[in-house]
Design brief:
The chain has helices at about 15-25, 40-45, 65-70, 90-110, 120-135, 150-165, 200-210, 210-220, 230-245, 265-270, 300-325, and strands spanning about 5, 30-35, 55, 75, 115, 145, 175, 185, 250-260, 275-285, 285-290. The chain is α/β, with parallel strands linked by helices and about 325 residues long. About 50% of the residues are buried. It binds 1,4-dihydronicotinamide adenine dinucleotide and oxaloacetate ion. Oxaloacetate ion binds near residues 88 and 150. It comes from Alectoria fallacina. Keywords: NAD, Oxidoreductase, Tricarboxylic acid cycle.
């Protein structure tokens, strides 16, 4: 029996993500939570003739507690999205507190659940979630994931323009680092099967993956950021977490984790001098079972990308940790 919960379920990501979860045969129970509109979204999805039993809650009457109790997987797309001209870090002021408070609820009502953080800035919200769980004495690093799957999905899609591959999802491209601009490091040299990318096309391709989010923000012209592709990516990652928890072997996916707490991750953290980083992680019944160190395999150009990534990432992580320990006055 798998219970999935979406916090922020009425939003641009929350609704299509909830739809995909409702339709999935892997989900037996689905609980939706948001500060607005959950009754309507829940009523609508409840007419779908899939197996998942659905419930929806608002904050009143212990809604968060009711949504989270018994949860196996909690996805968090709650928070405001970007508008043109904003960086993901501009969302910190509002989203940091939203994620902190929701994770406090998880620590209390479903501390053993897998936590999948989508809310931006992921580079800070994941450290916030970790610190909240640590303060509650409930932190299990294997169960906390920053969802960076959209970067992987974009890399697969954009490289297809060059390779012409029929099914883009057949090419596995590791994307490591963080989830914003230059902290996103796609490793096309390690694609499997190998891809031939003409030299003049490589830099624009890397840039497009790094700034794919901006492409959507600009196109939506003030109406938000990626929602449908993010719902696809979030569902794809959640499905892998659930399948691995059910015992399926050999599932590896990049995700932003607290490296010192994952087998094999400590050595990577020491090598890069950063504790939170997205690397390909083998998933299993206990969550993030093993971090893969692909750093020795990256080429010289990719090493330069990694240096830029580290510089940007460090500050965002520290900002998240600091927010939990010294919250700004209200
Ligand atoms: N990790 C990733 O790759 C991506 C992350 N995102 C991020 O996901 C977040 C959500 O984006 P959208 O769905 O487009 O935004 P949205 O504004 O359409 O939806 C957000 C939802 O969160 C709800 N919410 C706000 N405060 C809440 C609280 N305290 N508890 C529960 N729900 C709450 C709102 O009522 C709203 O329904 C943004 O921070 C965005 O930047 C977006 C795309 C990709
Ligand atoms: O760009 C944004 O703000 C939303 C996001 O994280 C993405 O699309 O990758």
């Amino acid at each position: 029996m798998v219970k999935a919960v979406v916090l922020g379920a009425s939003g641009g990501i929350g609704q299509p993500l909830s739809l995909l979860l409702k339709a999935s045969p892997l989900v037996d129970e689905l609980s939706l939570y948001d500060v607005v509109n959950t009754p309507g979204v829940t009523a609508d999805l409840s007419h779908i003739s899939s197996i998942a039993k659905i419930t929806g809650y608002l904050p009143a009457d212990d809604g968060l507690k009711k949504a989270l109790t018994g949860a196996d997987v909690v996805l968090i797309p709650a928070g405001i999205p970007r508008k043109p001209g904003m960086t993901r870090d501009d969302l910190f002021k509002i989203n940091a507190g939203i994620v902190r408070d929701l994770v406090k609820g998880i620590a209390e009502y479903s501390p053993k659940a897998f936590i999948l953080v989508i809310s931006n800035p992921v580079n800070s919200t994941v450290p916030i979630a970790a610190e909240v769980m640590m303060q509650a004495g409930k932190f299990d690093p294997k169960r906390l994931f920053g969802v960076t799957t959209l970067d992987v999905v974009r890399a697969e899609t954009f490289v297809q323009d060059i390779t012409g591959e029929n099914d883009p999802s057949k090419t596995v491209i590791p994307v490591i680092g963080g989830h914003s601009g230059e902290t996103i490091v796609p490793l096309f040299s390690l694609a499997k099967p190998a891809v031939e990318i003409p030299a003049e096309k490589l830099a624009p391709l890397i840039k497009r993956v790094q700034f794919g989010g901006d492409e959507v923000v600009e196109a939506k012209g003030g109406a938000g950021s990626a929602t449908l592709s993010m719902a696809y990516a979030g569902f794809r990652f959640a499905e892998k977490v659930i399948k691995a928890a059910n015992g399926e072997k050999g599932i590896v996916e990049p995700t932003f984790v607290y490296l010192p707490g994952v087998t094999g991750g400590d050595a990577i953290a020491k090598e890069i001098g950063i504790d939170y980083f997205s690397v390909p992680v083998e998933l299993g019944p206990s969550g993030a079972e093993k971090a893969t160190n692909i750093l020795p395999d990256v080429n010289d150009e990719e090493k330069k990308l990694l240096e830029a990534c580290k510089t940007g990432l460090k500050g965002s992580i520290e900002k998240g940790v600091e927010f939990v320990h010294n919250p700004p006055p209200k």
